[in-house]
Amino acid sequence: MKCPLCGGTECQNKFESYSNALKYYCKEYDREFLLSGNIEQTNNTIKQNQLNNLIFEFVIRNAVCGDENKNWWFQYLSDYRLQDKDASNIVNLAEINYPDTLAEKTDRILLNLYNIKAGYGEWFHLGGSFARAFFTDTDDNTELVGVYTMLQELGYITVKSKWYFMISAKGWQRLDELIRKNRDRKQAFIAMAFKSETQGIREAFRKGISNAGFKPIAIDEKEHNNQIVPEIFYEIDNSSFLVMDVTYPNYGAYYEAGYALGKGKQVIICCREDSFNGGMGDKPHFDIAQKSMIVWNNETDLVEKLEKRIRATVK
User: Fold this and answer.
1) What is the model's pTM?
2) Do residues 88 and 117 share a domain?
3) In this structure, which of 14, 49, 56, 232 has its CB flanked by the most CB atoms within 10 Å?
């Protein structure tokens, strides 16, 4: 398998048989990481090139693993459930949204280019490993040239010659907006049933979100004189992501999560294990049961798993 970062074949330097993982060291980007064996055996849900693009984006943006003694370990498990002893370096690519609109794709391309060469006037060559930054799903250059042309027509890049370009003044203006937005929106919206039985879940949410560096907000704690629904929409719009618990189903929480998804927000779904397995009556609704969720045993477990999921998936 070729290196997801540079496309070379010499980066794979070791096979870790004990973990069924391939170990890579990419000299071009000076990064070391592991790929789980299932990366090469994914179904048609996501293409291999798409997986490589997500790996490229993640490594470029997160050069250093939280544990300096470990390397990022990538896997793809659509039905993945966080376990109690999951290491902080494990990244499940199934939890990272792939850009599905042109607007999201162009924004993430700009951020990728910025993280590769963070300087005004830096020149790029479209060929080679930089192509990974463009989220092309195939090896067909037609798609790459199409995205490249689109960025040029939008005014986000300035072309020096056929394949050489740099981020334009307009591109840097857009980058400034994106970076400021990411910096300012350090808020997370909590969607759940608010009652005495869920007080422990609320506090676990608050702690897990805070530990990950975000400010938790629950609408019932906000002082306002407006109608409740506009206030909910306002706070979701100004949040980086939404955290939802379905241990005690709540129609309002489902509605808020649907709104957040429609706005392109990350939605992290949590459920206590006995409820997830149907021990409290109905299992989580089919629509969300298909989505990777945090299944937790107690509040301490929820805090740890939620913090880890936020750090791994929220950009």
Assistant:
1) 0.64
2) no
3) 56
